[in-house]
Amino acid sequence: MNCDRAERLLPLLGRGDLKPKDARALQEHLLDCSRCGESVRDYAQFFDLLHSTAELDFDEEFFGRIRRSVLSEIRLRERRPPSSLQWWRSNPVAVLGIVVLVMIAFGAGIALFKRTWSGLHNERVASSTEEVHALHQPPQVIPATTINAVKPEVKERRGAVVNSKRNAWDRLSRRSRNLKTAQAGDMIARQDGQVRFDRKPPEETPNVELSLQQAATVQRQKASRIEILTADPNIRIIWLVAKNTK
Amino acid sequence: MAGEVANFILMDQKFLRAGSTQAHDEVYLALIQRSKAGDTDAFERLMIATQQRVASIAYRLLGSREDSQDATQEVFLRVYKNLKRFDESKAFHPWLYRIAVNVCRDIAKRERKRGYQTISLDEELENELIEQSVGPQNVEEWAMARQQKALIEMATARLPYKERTAFILRDFEGLSTEEVANVLGVRTATVRVHVSSARARVRRYCERLISRTKERLSNELRPS
Q: What is the value of ipTM here, to two decimals?
C-alpha cells in the first residue's frame, strides 16, 4: 500500500468503517511509514474533538415548545373528521373490494349490452354443427306479392302521379317537336282541360281571322309560364318558358 | 509511535464490535404500541426519549435553531401519523432517522429556494464570518468546548449536503455504516466514500483555521 492509498483510508480508521483486508494492509503500512503515522495521530485528536462535541445543548424550554405544539396538533387532528382521502388510505382492503366490484359490474354491463345487441340483429352463437349449417343457409327470397302488400296504395298513387306527369310531359314534348311551345300548351289545354296558360288568352277580335300560325306567334310573344294541373290537386307542375321576343 | 497506532487500531476493532445504535428495546416497543393505540402520553414519553437526537440532527443539517425546531415538530408529527405502518420487528431509530433526514431535506430545499446557500469549504479562509467568529481575542479560550463545538459546527455546515448527512449520522449519532446506508437509501460503499471525504474536509478545515488564527495572533503579539 502506498501513502496516497493510505491517506484515503485513514479517515475511516478508528471507527470501524474499514474492511478487514484494508485495515490489515493499512496497519502494515503504518508500521513502516512515519508520515502516515503522524496523520493517524492527527486523526485520533480529530476524533476526540468530534466525540467531545457530539452532544448539543438544547434547553428544556426548547423541547417543551416542540412537544406542546406536536401534541396540540395531534389532538386537533384527532378531533377533525377524517376526510375521504384519509379513509381511502386507511382502508386499502375496502378500496380494493370496491374496485373489484366496479370492474365486475362493468364487465357484466358490457356482456349484457353485447347480448342485447346480438339479439337485435338475430345473431347468436351456434351450439352444434347442424345449427352452424342451418344458420349459414342462404336467405330466402321474399315473394314480390309480400312487398306489394306492404304499401300498395302509396306506390300506386306515386306511380299514377308520376305517370300522369310523364304522360303530360310526353304529350307536350312530342307535339311540340314541330310546334312552338305556346301552341303545344294551348292544344293540351284544349284537349283535356288540365293545361292552361297563366295568362289570359288574347282576346279574339271577331273581325280578324287569325290563322293558327298567327295565334302561335302572339302566344309566343306573351306566354312565359305554363301551369299543369295533375290528378292530385295538391300537385301542380309549373313550366317556365323563356320569353321569345322574335 | 507504533504503540499509539496499535492502540488506535484496537479502539477501531472495539468500536466495530460494539455496534453503534441500540435497536429497539422493550421500553421503546411498549411506548410505540401504546402510541399506536392512541395513547398521547406514551407518545409524549417517546418524544422525550428521542427529542435530543432528532433536534441534534435537524440542527446540524439545517444550521439554524428555528429551522431545527420546525423540523423536529414536523418529524414527530410524521412519526405519529405513520406509526401504524411501523414494523415492530425492525429497529425504531433508523426509521426515526429516515423521517428526520427526509424532513430536513425538504426544509433545506425550501430554504435553498428562498436564497439560502451552503458555503463551500474552499472559501472558508477568506470568509469574514469565520474571522469574526474565531478572532484573536478568543485564542486563549480556543480549547474550550464551546468554541470547539462552534468550530465543528461551522465545518459541518460547509460540507455538501449528502456528505454532511452521512457524516452526522455516522460520527455524531453513532449509526453503523450499514445503518446509515439504510437510512439514506444508498450503498455502504457510497456511505464510506462520503464519510471519508467529510472527515478529511472537516479535519483540514479545523487545521487551517487553527493555524491561520495562531499566525494572526503571533503577528499581533510581535513587537513592532
A: 0.70
Q: Is B203 exposed, middle or buried (0-12, 13-18, 19+ CB in 10 A)?
A: buried
pTM here is 0.55
The Cα of A114 is separated from the nearest Cα of chain B by a number of Å equal to 45
C-alpha cell at A173: 314534348
- The Cα–Cα gap between B224 and A88 comes to 79
Cβ of A66 within 8 Å of Cβ of B51? The answer is yes
Question: Looking at beta carbons, which residues of chain B come within 8 Å of A82?
Answer: none
* Closest CB to A56 among B9, B59, B69: B59
Structural domains of chain B in order of their starting residue, each with its CATH number: 21-117 (1.10.1740.10), 118-224 (1.10.10.10)
CA distance B77 to chain A (A): 6
What is the secondary structure of chain A as a DSSP string? --HHHHHHHGGGTTTT-S-HHHHHHHHHHHHH-HHHHHHHHHHHHHHHHHHHT-SPP--HHHHHHHHHHHHHHHHHHHHSPPPHHHHHHH-HHHHHHHHHHHHHHHHHHHHHHHHHHHHHTT-----SHHHHHHHTSPPPPPPHHHHHHHSHHHHHHHHHHHHHHHHHHHHHHHHTTTS-HHHHHHHHHHHHS-EEESSPPPPPPTTS---HHHHHHHHHHH--EEEEE-SSTT-EEEEE-PPP--
- Low-confidence stretches of chain B (pLDDT beneath 70): 1-25, 113-146, 221-224
Q: What residues of chain B lie within 8 A of the CB of A75, using their CB?
A: 40
pLDDT in tens, chain A (246 residues): 788 888 888 888 777 778 888 888 888 888 888 888 888 888 888 888 777 777 777 888 888 888 899 888 888 887 776 666 667 777 788 889 999 999 999 999 999 988 887 666 655 555 566 666 665 666 565 555 444 444 445 444 554 555 565 666 666 555 555 444 444 444 444 455 554 544 555 555 554 455 556 655 666 566 677 777 778 878 878 776 666 554
